[in-house]
């Protein structure tokens, strides 16, 4: 049995659970989990804010740990290696998306680290709020950061790649003005990564308390988005805006800040839809609103290696698993700088 924490129904707090992990097959890697980040998606899923949650739901897809066993066909990993697992644990591995290293867009649908289809008990995957996990070797990442940074590396596995992938896809770099909206788990990584890629970065926050803190992350400017005067000062000036907000909000306030041909990419998946955007604001300057989903496995490895080389990690608050429900409450109030990470050793207590 593996100790875990999860939701049994959408109306009840997360509780201690015992779950089963399969014996590693020929291509599997078994991992003892050291740390797991707390993504807003975990909260959306566990609390039933998205349709289709399968219970019991053990969330967690920002996993860092050590390899405890490998299957007979595994060559890339050995016992003792430090590894990561993100939002995916499998995909069809033969469609055009998988062939191009875009497993997140797998034609058959990728298998999520939790709430995904599996033959393992109880019939859906269970995530990283647990002591251990068994994952197909193609979905395991190598972690090369120093040991003392591992807790802060965990959020790179979702918050890092979900911001890295669009920044790379839309070719963010020097000479560009880039906005990051919502300075939470994803947004704070977006600021760090866009800064590291050489862009001029403007952080948009609803929280006055994050004004100074966002500068420390690498933002060149900070705008409190509730203040229309501050917003208007940036009209028609952005090449690219990455919007990470986890709640329904007025998108027009941000599309108005894009230059001609600028793009705002949405990565937040709010419980309730955004109000319909003003089409005129898009048409008259040929602006684009786009979406982006996590990132592929090769791209995730590229991001982890880039971050290790540049010394980039998340800013975290390490928590005991027994404080997870309070952490969910605080995340709903945007009261975290900027990511909770579970010390999975506290599951043993
Ligand atoms: P988070 O840590 O809670 O950060 C979201 C931030 O959005 C908050 O810190 C807050 O920033 C801002 N915000 C919250 N409520 C708001 C409101 N009503 N109006 C305006 N701003 C608001 O969440 P996260 O873990 O970064 O996740 C963000 C979203 O991305 C979630 O919906 C999550 O499910 C989704 N997600 C998507 C993908 C993908 O592949 N597309 C991957 C992972 C997560 P300020 O305090 O700065 O305003
Ligand atoms: Zn996530």
Describe the structure.
This protein folds into two domains: 2-158 and 296-302 and 313-348, Alpha-Beta Complex (Quinone Oxidoreductase, Chain A, domain 1); 160-291, Rossmann fold. The model has no long low-confidence stretch (mean pLDDT 97). 48% of the residues are buried. α4 (159-169) packs across α5 and α4 packs across α10 (297-310). Strands 3, 4, 5, 8, 9, 16 and 17 form a seven-stranded mixed β-sheet that branches. The protein has a six-stranded parallel β-sheet with strand order 12-11-10-13-14-15, with helices on one face. It has a two-stranded antiparallel ribbon with strand order 1-2. It is globular. The chain has eleven helices and 17 strands. The chain has 349 residues and is α/β, with parallel strands linked by helices. Zinc ion binds at residues 39, 41, 61, 87, 158.
Any descriptors?
single chain; 349 residues; alpha/beta; Quinone Oxidoreductase, Chain A, domain 1; Rossmann fold; 2 domains; seven-stranded mixed sheet; six-stranded parallel sheet; 11 helices; globular; binds NADP nicotinamide-adenine-dinucleotide phosphate; binds zinc ion
Strand-pairing-aware structural class: alpha/beta
Distance between the termini: 15 Å
**Text of the CATH class of the largest domain:** Alpha Beta
Biggest sheet record = 7 strands, mixed
Give the count of helical stretches.
11
Question: DSSP strand (E) fraction?
Answer: 25-35%
Write the CATH homologous superfamily of the largest domain. Answer: Medium-chain alcohol dehydrogenases, catalytic domain
Using the 3D structure, state the CATH architecture of the largest domain: Alpha-Beta Complex
CATH topology of the largest domain: Quinone Oxidoreductase, Chain A, domain 1
Number of domains: 2
